Amino acid sequence: MKKPTIILSSLDHRGQKMIRISYTFEKQLAAYVKAFPGVRWSRTYGCYYLPYSYNRKNELFHYLVAGGYWVDYEQLNRKQAGKPVEPKTLRVLSAENQARLERYQQYLRGLRMSDSTVQTYGSFVFTFLEYLGDKPLSAIDNTSVRLFVEELVRRKKYGISSHRQLIGALKHFSVLFTETRIDNPELVRPKRSRLLPTVLSQEEVMRLLQRTPNLKHRTVLALIYSSGLRISELLNLELKDVDLERKQLRIRQAKGRKDRYVVLAESFIPLLMNYLNSYRPTKYVIQGDGGGRYSGSSVRAFLKRSCQRAGILKKVSPHTLRHSYATHLVENGVNLRHVQELLGHSKPETTMIYTHVARRDLLNIRSPLDDAVLKLLKDDKNPPHLSLSGDL
Questions:
Q1: What are the CA-CA distances from residue 8 to residues 5, 75, 77, 95, 208 (Å)?
Q2: Chain Cα centroid distance, residue 358
Q3: Which of 322, 323, 325, 328 is catalytic?
Q4: Can the keyword rRNA processing be found in this entry's annotation (predicted)?
C-alpha cells in the first residue's frame, strides 16, 4: 500500500515563520509526525507545525523520508513577499536506494528493534545511501564507510553516543546487504566516554523548582526528579499509569522495551493534583496542544530559563535531574540493586557510576593541608589570624 504524501508549506503563526505539515489523516502517520522534536499542534490552523530554520527543514525532510513517506516541499521554497528563497538542496533517494532503505527498516523491525531505533538507524542509512548515490553495493568497502563516517561526524559534530549509533546502523547494513565488501568486524565503535554526570545538589533542585513559576513546567521538572524519569518516559506517561493509592507510576515499554514501576513522591502528589485539576489532560499526563504528547524541545527550553532564574551555572538538561535523583538515592544509603531497578538499568555497571559521584565518605575526608594549617593555628607561637592568603 502506497504511503500518503506529506506537504511542507510556509505558515505565519503569531508573527513567526513556521513549517506547516499537511497530509491526509492516518493514525500511524500522525504519531510519526508528532514524534519529531519540536512539532506542535495548532488549533487555529488545524495542523502540525514546526518553527522554521534551514537546518530544521532538512532534518524534518530526512526524518519523514526515512519513515518511507513521500515529501512535497515545493510550496515551502516558493518566493514570498519578494524575498529570495534558498536554493533547493534537499534530495530524495533513487528508487533503488529507497527500496534498499525500506528493506533495511523492515529487517530491523524483524529483529524486534524499537520504533525509535528503527527511525534513528534508518536516518543514518538514508544519509549513507544519499552519500553513495548510484554506487553499486559491490563497490562499497570499508574505505567507503570510513570516509563517510569521518565526513559526517565532522560535519554534524557528533558526540561519542551518536558516533556509536552510526557504526551500529552501518554494521546492520553490512549484515543485510552481503553484496558489499564491508568487513563487519573492522567497523569498530569508539569507546564509551566515562565522564561523570553533572548533578545538582538538593538545594539547587529546590531552588530550580521555586524559580519555575508556570504550574505545568514546575510539575514536569518535579516529576522527572522525584521519579528519576527519562524525558521519553515523561512524555509517554499516560493518566492510566498513575496509581495514587499505591503512590507509584507504571513506566511502559521504556528503554530496552521493559516495563517497571517507580515511586510517586508523596510530597509531589499535591502539585500533581493541582496541575491535573487546572489543565485537565485527557490521555497523557503532560499533554501537548491538540491532546498529543508534549514536546521534549519545549521541556529543554523552559528548563534553561528556570536555571537562569535560579542562578544555576551548570549545564543542565532534563537527564541531569535523573542523574541527581539517582545520586541522592545513593547518598541516602539506598541499595544499588534497588536504584538499578528504579532507573530501569539492565546492567549494574551502569548504575555503579553514581557511586563515584555520591561518595560523601571520601569527600568528607579532610585534606592534609587543612590539618597542617590547623596544627599551626593551635601553636601559641603563631598569630591567630594565620592563613594561606597572607604571609606565613
A1: 10, 7, 9, 21, 38
A2: 24
A3: 322
A4: no
Instruction: Name the one residue in this structure whose C-alpha cell is 524575498.
Output: 83
Cβ-proximal residues to 22 (8 Å cutoff; 6+ apart), any chain: 6, 7, 8, 9, 47
**More confident position, 32 or 13:** 32
354 carries an active-site annotation: yes
pLDDT tens for 294-325 read 888 889 999 999 999 999 999 999 999 999 98
* Cα–Cα distance, 37 to 298 (Å, whole number): 9
Question: Of 3.40.120.10, 3.20.20.120, 3.40.1170.30, 3.30.450.40, which CATH number belongs to 5-77?
Answer: 3.40.1170.30
84 pLDDT band, cuts 50/70/90, is very low
The verdict on whether 48 is a catalytic residue reads no
Residue 89 has pLDDT above 50, yes or no: no
List the grid coordinates of 314.
551548570
Q: Which of 164, 255, 260, 300 is catalytic?
A: 255
Does 230 participate in catalysis according to the annotation?
yes
Tell me whether residue 275 is one of the annotated catalytic residues. no
What is the per-residue pLDDT for 220? 95
3-state helix, strand, coil in the chain (%, to 5): 55, 10, 35
Domain ranges of the chain: 5-77, 95-186, 202-361
pTM recorded for the entire structure? 0.59
